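Before a computer can learn anything about folding, someone has to put a protein's shape into writing. The three-dimensional part falls to structure tokens, numbers that each stand for a local backbone shape. The protein below has been through that process, and both of its lines are reproduced in full.
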Amino acid sequence: MIITIKSQEKMAALRDMSSNLSETVEEMTAKTSEVAQVSSVISDRIQQISTNSEQISITANDASQVISFILEIANRSHLLGLNAAIEAARAGQDGRGFSVVAGEIRELAQTSKNGLARITEFLEGIQHAIEDSSASVQEVAAMMEEHTASVEELSGAFTQIASIAEQLQNQAKSAEPNIVQPVSPSDAYSHQSHQKDTT
């Protein structure tokens, strides 16, 4: 069976397109692999940020407990200073020096309470910031998981396309030996003349 030049051209075009498709898919697969690697690094960083945020939150809670303990001591010191001032007043002239010490104790206790209140407010601000940050990190982490799944799905699709392109390319190559070159008019005439001479 004689296949025309047009069929040969189609077969060659199929082979070229399959080759180009394979190269394109190979490049896209490489890019997808790079994106997957970057996504993995980002996911690791997000996980590290989440871990650090949790550690900061734990530290802030520990600090709050320490502050509560110190605040209790300050309250007791303030009460002690108040009682001491009352006793000094009862002692009259003899308790004047003790009254000064009691006043200093009360003042120190009040200063400590004011400082602890500011620290507590600061820690509460940190806690709120950590909670907001953790929520954002969790949201980004969820988005990255979806992105990673999409990249994996895309990579699988590229692999399938590459397989199809390879099959087309192999089919085009295997079909080439079966292609019969078209016979020109002069060759056909010579062939007919040769057959008449032999008869």
Observations:
- The mean pLDDT is 75.
- The chain is about 90% helix and 0% strand.
- Residues 3 and 179 are 6 Å apart (CA to CA).
- The first helix runs from residue 5 to 91.
